[in-house]
Specification:
Elements (H helix, E strand, L loop, with lengths): L4 H43 L5 H31 L11 H33 L1 H7 L2 H6 L3 H38 L3 H55 L5 H28 L2 H6 L1 H11 L4 E6 L6 H21 L6 E8 L2 E8 L13 H9 L4 E5 L6 E8 L3
Parallel strand pairs: 1-2
Antiparallel strand pairs: 2-3, 3-5, 4-5
Helix pairs in contact: 1-2, 1-3, 1-6, 2-3, 3-6, 7-8, 10-11
Length: 404
């Protein structure tokens, strides 16, 4: 006969719950027994009835302290194996918290577990009373005629007790599954620390992924679109040089297309350099920033003091900050006559300072790209500061953590 799926699931759940409780009861009651013995020895020590009581008390306390880690391991295994609940391991480093759990909550859980398991055993024994009676010799049954009625009552009571076992077992398991991870596992502070660490790792992974994606786009532009534009410009230049008998209108179109192709190549070069210049990977931040300073529309004094290279993601952010800052100077401070870029490393901090002698008054709300720049800095746990009073000068200071 095929068992209905719902009944099969209920039987599986009941078996799991009873196994969980049967394993937990001796573990919880062991600590309760040790504490009961310890309280008795404390009383004997106070009363002075037994001179060996203090020695035995010390032995029991040491034994209880040694049992705490083993009991914790056993409970963690029980929850993971039978309920699929993983109690975090950092909670194991709190012996006081573990001792409190086994002494206080363990006594309550052990009593409830023993009650559920005992109710199952008593219910089974009572429900099978009639079977046991009829297994006795017929002479005994004839001489004890009233026992059959009592056996029927006991069997009914046993069936009622068995009917209550699934609900009681499920309630105890639910109580333990809610309280034990909170009492034995992480504290709230540990959860917050772990959450911050996870978020930091995930953000670092996102930053690295974005950095790799920018480099991929730069390679695709350099090897794909840029090469096609160069080929187009060469073909237009060749056409302009060889097709001398074209009408003036056609030559004007070719001249315009040739000029726009060269301008597109220049703009694409600037875009590629802004994404991730190849010199940054090959020669480092000093050489990449030297190229930026050489291409700037105003004199730039550059000073780079890096005893060793930082991480690639940090280098990319520092390059982007300087590039964006010099671009802002060219766009929004045409009266500036000079700029200064200083890059230094102090311990685990890379500090980038950009100053110019422009009129100042830089406002992040005016579309200068400063909010995006600050967000890019914060993506690697950096700090961004801006000082631009009206009349100048303007100073941008960025600090980036670099542990490598």
């Amino acid at each position: 006969m095929k068992i209905p799926p719902r009944l099969r699931r209920a039987c599986t759940r009941l078996t799991r719950d009873l196994s969980f409780l049967a394993l937990g009861a001796p573990l919880h009651l062991l600590m309760g027994f040790l504490l009961f013995m310890a309280f008795g020895l404390v009383w004997e020590t106070i009363a002075g009835n037994d001179s060996s009581a203090p020695v035995m008390l010390g032995f029991l306390l040491v034994l209880a302290a040694l049992c705490v880690p083993a009991l914790t391991v056993a409970h963690v295994w029980r929850f993971r194996r039978l309920l699929g609940i993983d109690i975090p391991r950092p909670g194991w480093r709190r012996p006081g918290r573990q001792f409190g759990y086994h002494c206080l909550a363990g006594a309550l859980f052990g009593t409830l577990e023993a009650l559920a398991v005992g109710l199952l055993a008593a219910g089974l024994a009572a429900a099978l009373t009639c079977v046991w009676v009829y297994a006795l010799p017929w002479q005994w049954r004839i001489s004890h005629l009233g026992y059959s009625t009592q056996a029927a009552y006991l069997s009914v009571a046993g069936l009622i007790a068995l009917a209550g076992v699934p609900g009681l077992a499920a309630a105890v398991v639910r109580l333990e599954s809610h309280l034990t991870p909170a009492l034995l596992g992480h504290s709230r502070e540990e959860d917050l620390v772990r959450r911050v660490e996870d978020l930091t790792e995930s953000r670092a992974g996102a930053v690295d992924a974005a950095h790799a994606e920018r480099r991929r786009i730069e390679r695709d532009l350099h090897d794909g679109a840029q090469q096609r534009l160069v080929s187009l410009a060469l073909n237009l230049g060749l056409a302009k040089a060889t097709l001398v008998d074209l009408p003036p209108e056609a030559r004007a179109v070719i001249d315009t297309a040739h000029r726009e192709a060269k301008e597109a190549i220049e703009e694409l070069n600037s875009l590629v350099r802004g994404l991730h210049p190849a010199v940054l990977d090959e020669l480092g931040l000093d050489a990449a920033l030297s190229g930026l300073a050489a291409r700037a529309p105003l004199p730039v004094r550059l000073r780079v003091d890096l005893p060793r290279r930082p991480a690639p993601a940090v280098e990319a952010v520092a390059y982007f900050v300087v590039s964006e800052a010099l671009t802002n100077v060219a766009k929004h401070a045409p009266d500036a006559t000079r700029a200064e870029v200083t890059v230094t490393r102090l311990g685990g901090i890379l500090r980038v300072v950009i100053t110019d002698d422009g009129p100042g008054g830089a406002d992040p709300a005016q579309g200068s790209g400063l909010p995006g720049l600050a967000q890019r800095v914060r993506s690697v746990d950096g700090t961004f500061r801006m000082s631009s009073p009206v009349g100048g000068p303007t100073m941008m200071s960025v600090e980036l953590p670099c542990q490598s």
